[in-house]
Design brief:
The structure holds two protein chains of two kinds.
Chain A lengths: L2 H35 L4 H8 L10
Chain B lengths: L3 E6 L2 E6 L3 H29 L12 H33 L6 H21 L15 H23 L8 H20 L2 E3 L5 E3 L3 H19 L2 H15 L6 H15 L14 H13 L1 H13 L5 H6 L1 H23 L2 H7 L3 H30 L7 H34 L12 H7 L1 H30 L15
Antiparallel strand pairs in B: 1-2, 3-4
Helix pairs in contact in B: 1-2, 1-3, 1-17, 2-3, 2-7, 3-4, 4-5, 5-6, 5-7, 5-8, 7-12, 7-14, 8-10, 10-12, 12-14, 12-15, 14-15, 14-17, 15-17
Bound molecules: protoporphyrin IX containing FE (2 copies).
The site of one protoporphyrin IX containing FE has 27 residues of chain B, from helix 6, helix 12, helix 13 and helix 14.
Chain lengths: 59, 484
C-alpha cells in the first residue's frame, strides 16, 4: 500500500481507539464520582475519613 | 517490641499482635540509605561544579556515580521509606498482622542485598544503560522475586483483614505493588548474553517508548502514589484530624492512576515518536494537574483547625512543606509537558530542578515527617533532641530553595542561550562550552543547597540513634495502648 494511504488508515484506526478510550474513561470518571458523592454513602465516607485516627483503624 | 490492638468485632473482643520488628528494620535501613544516597548526590554535585572531584579513577567518575545516586535515593531511600510506612500502617488499617513474618524478612533482606549489589556493580560500570533501570539482568531477576514475595505478603494481609472497607492509603499501596511489578518486568525484558551482559528485546523507537513509559511511571508509582498513601495515613494521624474529604481522596486516587499511565511520552517530545502519541502524552500530563491539586488541597485542608500546631510541631511543618512541593512539582510538570515549554526546558538543568523539587521537597519532606512521628510511636520514646527536628526542617527547606532556584535559573539561562539567534539569523552563542561554563555559579549554589539538605539528614540520623538508645518513654504516650 502507498505510504500516504497507510498513514491515513492508521490515523483512522487511532481515532477509533482514542474515541473509545475517551468514552470508557469518561464513564469510569462519572462512575467513581457518583459512588463517592452519592448521599447513601455519606456515612461510610465520614467513617472512612476517621480511619487513620487511633491505632487499630476505624474507631 | 510488638504492639497489641484490641478490636471489638461484632461484640467479640479479639487481640492482634502487630509485627513492629519489621517496621523497625525498614526504618533503620531507610535512615542509613538516606545518608548514603544524599552523600553521593552531594559528591556528583561537586563533580559538576569542580571536575577534579572525579578523581581520575574510572569507579569514581560522574558517569558511574550518577546512576549510583539515582538508584540509592529512589530504590534504597524512597523504597525503604515506603516499605516502612506500608508495613506499619497496613497492619493498623487492616487490624491484622502481616500475612507472613517469613516473607517480610525475605523482602527485607532480599531488598537490602539488591541495594548492595547495585552499589557494587554500578561503580564497576556494569549497566544496561536505561535510566532508573540500569541494573544488570541477574539483579533484575532478584528484584522480581523479592517483589513477588512482597506482593504475596501484602495481598495475603489484605485477604485476612479484620475490617471490611479498604482505606484510601491501601489503594495507593496496591497501585504501587501492582504497577511496579508490571513496569519492572516489561522494561527489563532482555536476552542474556553473559552473566553481566544482555541485549534488550526492544529496538529503536519501541525501546525508547517502553523505557519512558517505565521511567515516567517509576516517578508516578514509586515516588508519588505510595507517598500519597503515606500522606493520607500519617498526616491525619500526626494532625489528629480526619481527612478533609474522603470523597475527594477517591477521585484523587482513580484520577491519578488512570492518567499517569499514559503520560510517559512527555519525555519524548520532538523525538521520532509519532506526533499523535506525543500529543496523547501531553494531554494526559496536563489533565494530571487536576487530581494532583485535588490531592494537595485535601492534604492541606486536613490541617484546618490545626494550623496553630503547625507553628510549633516540626512533624506537621515537614508535612505541610512536602504537600506544598507536591503541588509545585505537579504544576511545573504539566507546564513542562506542553511542547513549546518543553522545547525550552528539555536537556537543561530546569529538569533537574523539577526532579529535585519533587524528590527533596515532596518525597524527602513527607518521609522525614513520617519518620519523626513514627520513631516515637514504635520505639515508644520521645525524641532525644526535639529542637533538632526543627533545625533539620529549616536546613532542608533552605537547601531545597537554593537547589531548585539555582537549577531553574541555570536551566532558563542555558535554554535561552542555546536557541538565541542574532540579527543575521545565526546562533548568538555558537560555542556550546561558553554556555556551559556560565553555569558554574549556579552549580556551586546547588552544591550548597544539597549540602544543607544532607546536614539536616545527618542531624536526623544522630537524633534517631540517640532516641533509640535513650530511655523508654513513660506510659503517658501521645500514641497508643499497651505493649506485649
Ligand atoms: C543532598 C541531596 C541531593 C543532591 C545534592 C542531589 C544531586 C544530584 C545531582 C548533582 C544530580 C545530577 C544532575 C545532572 O546530571 O545534571 C542528581 C540527579 C538526580 N537526583 Fe539527586 N540529589 C539529592 C537528593 C535526591 C533525592 C532525595 C532524590 C529522590 C528521592 C534524588 C533524585 C534524583 C534523580 C531522579 C536524578 C536524575 C534526574 C534526571 O535524570 O533528570 N536526588 N541529583
Ligand atoms: C503531574 C505531575 C507531573 C508531570 C506532568 C511531570 C512532567 C515532567 C516532564 C514534562 C518532565 C521533563 C521531561 C524532559 O523534558 O526530559 C519531567 C521530568 C521528571 N520528573 Fe516530572 N512531572 C510531574 C511530577 C513529578 C513529581 C511529583 C516528581 C518526583 C517526585 C517528578 C520527577 C521527575 C523526574 C525524576 C524527571 C526526570 C526524568 C529524566 O529525564 O530522567 N515529576 N516530568
Amino acid at each position: 500500500m502507498n505510504t500516504l494511504l497507510r498513514e491515513a488508515a492508521a490515523s483512522v484506526q487511532m481515532g477509533w481507539l482514542l474515541g473509545a478510550m475517551t468514552v470508557v474513561f469518561l464513564v469510569c470518571f462519572v462512575g467513581w464520582i457518583v459512588y463517592a458523592y452519592h448521599p447513601r454513602n455519606r456515612e461510610l465516607m465520614e467513617e472512612m475519613a476517621r480511619m487513620p485516627l487511633g491505632d487499630g483503624g476505624d474507631s | 517490641m510488638e504492639r497489641v490492638a484490641t478490636g471489638t468485632g461484632a461484640g467479640v473482643s479479639e487481640t492482634t499482635v502487630y509485627d513492629d520488628q519489621i517496621v523497625k528494620m525498614f526504618f533503620t535501613a531507610t535512615t542509613v540509605w538516606a545518608l548514603v544516597g544524599m552523600l553521593v548526590g552531594v559528591i556528583i554535585a561537586l563533580q559538576l561544579a569542580w571536575w577534579p572531584a572525579n578523581l581520575g579513577l574510572p569507579w569514581t567518575t560522574f558517569g558511574r556515580l550518577r546512576p549510583l545516586h539515582t538508584n540509592a535515593v529512589i530504590f534504597a531511600f524512597a523504597g525503604n521509606v515506603c516499605f516502612t510506612g506500608i508495613y506499619h500502617s497496613t497492619q493498623r488499617l487492616l487490624k491484622t498482622r502481616m500475612y507472613s513474618d517469613r516473607l517480610s524478612r525475605v523482602h527485607f533482606w532480599g531488598w537490602q542485598s539488591i541495594i548492595v549489589a547495585a552499589a557494587i556493580t554500578l561503580p564497576l560500570g556494569m549497566t544496561q544503560s536505561k535510566e532508573y533501570a540500569e541494573l544488570i539482568w541477574p539483579i533484575d531477576v532478584a528484584i522480581t522475586l523479592v517483589w513477588v514475595a512482597f506482593g504475596v505478603n501484602f495481598f495475603g494481609t489484605l485477604a485476612r483483614r479484620k475490617v471490611k472497607h479498604l482505606y484510601v492509603a491501601i489503594w495507593f499501596y496496591m497501585s504501587f505493588v501492582i504497577t511496579i511489578a508490571v513496569l519492572h518486568i516489561v522494561n527489563s525484558l532482555v536476552i542474556p548474553a553473559t552473566l553481566f551482559r544482555s541485549y534488550p528485546i526492544y529496538a529503536g523507537l519501541t525501546d525508547a517508548l517502553v523505557q519512558w513509559w517505565y521511567g515516567h511511571n517509576a516517578v508516578g508509582f514509586f515516588l508519588t502514589t505510595p507517598f500519597l498513601g503515606l500522606m493520607y495515613y500519617y498526616l491525619p494521624r500526626a494532625a489528629q484530624r480526619p481527612v478533609y474529604s474522603y470523597r475527594l481522596s477517591i477521585v484523587h486516587f482513580w484520577g491519578l492512576v488512570f492518567l499517569y499511565i499514559w503520560a510517559g511520552p512527555h519525555h519524548l517530545l520532538y523525538s521520532a515518536l509519532p506526533d499523535w502519541a506525543q500529543t496523547v502524552g501531553m494531554v494526559f500530563s496536563i489533565m494530571l494537574l487536576a487530581p494532583s491539586w485535588g490531592g494537595m488541597l485535601n492534604g492541606l485542608l486536613t490541617l484546618r483547625g490545626a494550623w496553630d500546631r503547625v507553628r510549633t510541631d516540626p512533624i506537621l511543618k515537614f508535612m505541610v512543606v512536602a504537600v506544598s512541593f507536591y503541588g509545585m512539582s505537579t504544576f511545573e510538570g504539566p507546564m513542562m509537558s506542553i511542547r513549546a515549554v518543553n522545547s525550552l526546558a528539555h536537556y537543561t538543568n530546569w529538569v533537574i530542578g523539577h526532579v529535585h523539587s519533587g524528590a527533596l521537597g515532596w518525597v524527602g519532606m513527607i518521609s522525614f515527617g513520617m519518620m519523626y512521628w513514627m520513631i516515637q510511636d514504635i520505639w515508644k520514646r520521645k525524641l532525644a533532641h526535639p529542637s533538632w527536628a526543627t533545625h533539620h526542617f529549616w536546613l532542608a527547606t533552605i537547601g531545597i530553595v537554593l537547589y531548585t532556584v539555582a537549577m531553574w535559573a541555570a536551566g532558563l539561562m542555558e535554554g535561552l542561550q542555546w536557541r538565541a539567534l542574532n540579527d543575521a539569523g545565526r546562533l548568538a552563542h555558537p560555542i556550546f562550552l561558553d554556555i556551559t561554563t556560565r553555569l558554574e555559579p549556579f552549580l556551586w549554589l546547588r552544591l550548597l543547597g544539597g549540602t544543607l539538605y544532607l546536614i539536616g539528614a545527618i542531624m536526623m540520623a544522630v537524633n534517631f540513634w540517640q532516641t533509640i538508645r535513650g530511655p523508654e518513654r513513660p506510659a503517658d504516650a501521645a500514641a497508643v495502648p499497651a505493649a506485649a
